[in-house]
Design goal:
seven-stranded antiparallel sheet, dTDP-glucose pyrophosphorylase, membrane
């Protein structure tokens, strides 16, 4: 018998008070905030896709789109976040399927001659979630 692929539903990061920051139509998960992804959808999480990084430089908000590479949600995953446009802005996304939580950690590596740490920082990560739908 041939099994068909599971039906999926992909949802963007919703607006959640004190957890996300809205910017240009996307909601960005704040660093160091634990998100219970059951609050987005109760079904099994299959993938998390980082979409963009939000940063502030000299008080001005900017965002950098990321390559949309789905990260499989299986066990405990630590996924590095970086961009070719601004390699100084780094972070990591931690997905824990056992506890059904995820967290974005801002981990900025700064080149002093190009990017001043006192004036620039990562302040959010936009995500998409792919859930399995019941059959």
């Amino acid at each position: 018998m041939i099994k068909s692929l599971p039906l999926t539903l992909t949802l963007p990061m919703p607006a959640i008070a004190e957890v996300t920051l809205p910017h240009q139509g996307l909601n960005y998960l704040r660093p160091n905030v634990i998100l219970d992804f059951v609050s987005i959808n109760p079904n099994a999480l299959l993938f998390v896709t980082p979409v963009a990084v939000l940063f502030a430089s000299l008080g001005v908000l900017g965002h950098v789109p990321l390559r949309r590479i789905p990260v499989a949600a299986s066990g405990r995953v630590i996924y590095p976040i970086s961009t070719m446009i601004l390699p100084e802005l780094r972070g990591k996304l931690i997905i824990n399927t056992a506890s059904r939580k995820l967290k974005f950690l801002e981990n900025q590596v700064v080149k002093p001659d190009e990017f001043a740490p006192s004036t620039s920082q990562v302040i959010g990560l936009a995500l998409e979630f792919t859930f399995q739908q019941p059959e």
